[in-house]
Amino acid sequence: MEEMSNQPEALVEAPVRVLNTADPFEKARLGAVIATKWLQGFISLPYHPSSRLPVKLVPPSLMPKLGKARSLQSRQAIVHSLVHTESWAIDLSWDIIARFGEQEAMPREFFTDFVKELGSFYGAFPAHAGLWDSAIATAKDLLARLAVEHCVHEWIIIKQARGLDVLPTTITRFRNGGDNETADLLERVVYPEEITHCAAGVKWFKSISLRSRNPITYPWSLISLESVTSERETTTTVEDERDVIQKFHATVRTHFRGPLKPPFNEEARKAAGFGPQWYEPLALKE
Predict the structure, then answer these.
(1) At CB < 8 A and 24+ separation, what contacts does 139-144 make?
(2) Distances (CA, A) of 71 to 19, 127, 136
(3) Based on C-alpha coordinates, what's the Rg of the chain?
């Protein structure tokens, strides 16, 4: 296993090693090492990932139904889908750093936000590469990457389902099936992490859009390490807020096929700073 030395390394270079690591467990381990080195100050600011050998990839349209967690096989398939998605999430977070970090001259807080996101077996079920397909489609547009991968796909993580919009129901079904251990894992780990992933997407889509309108009014120094909260809310004009949301709508309609499907988990979306004005208009067919 490859270990990182204490020699300085650029954060836009380190992710390439994660992306080129095929084994999902080693990928996660190496990602954690790089994240630790970044947070400790050993890494400085300034393609398709290696194949997931254990997993048979099939087109999304050929994916078997996951079921409703009433049987052991259904629960295994749902957990497998979540594991597969989280493995893609490692690649996506490092890819956004490697692909856009240097060319966009992003502030340190941008890198830190995405570094933080990070009975059966992986490979027992087929999976698809829909998340990475979207990453390729948005490879030249940072706003499109943030909007589609971090604000839309975070809510579509279970095959064609609505991710966090249905995750509470999935947790309940696991409990009803007697699998409290997996339900606890989904509730304590997966659910909060998906909110965090989406919050990072909303925060940086809004911040980059505002800064592109007026760099003097919206300098990077106004951006909180945690979220777009009180300080930003008091300095954002109604007109700017409206324009950012309209830009989000236009970006999603350009890079994501079809409308978003209600019902929506309003509580989780609100926790991510993702109010109904952001997503409800996208649920309507034009």
Answers:
(1) 139/99, 141/251, 141/255, 142/96, 142/100, 142/104, 142/208, 143/205, 143/208, 143/209, 143/247, 143/251, 144/251, 144/254, 144/255
(2) 35, 19, 35
(3) 19
- Orientation of helix 130-137 relative to helix 72-100, angle to 10°: 20
Give the predicted TM-score (pTM) of the model: 0.69
**From CA 72, how far away is CA 76, in angstroms rounded?**
6
10 alpha-carbon distance from chain centroid:
22
* H or E element that contains 9: strand 9-10
- Residues 241-267 pLDDT 10s: 899 999 999 999 999 988 888 878 888
Take residue 93 and report the two structure tokens written for it.
């977070």
Instruction: Name the one residue in this structure whose structure tokens are 């279970």.
Output: 158
pLDDT, tens digit, 9 for 90 and up, residues 134-169: 888 888 899 999 999 888 876 554 333 345 677 788
Q: Kind of pairing, strands 43-44 and 9-10?
A: parallel
Hey, is 277 helix, strand or coil? helix
Measure the CA–CA gap between 170 and 157, rounded to whole angstroms: 12
Q: List C-alpha distances in Å: 284 to 209, 242, 280.
A: 24, 18, 7
Cα–Cα distance list, 192 to 40, 44, 164, 177, 186 (Å)? 24, 29, 9, 22, 9
How far apart CA 173 and CA 58 sit, in angstroms, is: 27
Amino acid 263 reads: P
Helices 108-115/191-213 angle, 10° precision: 160
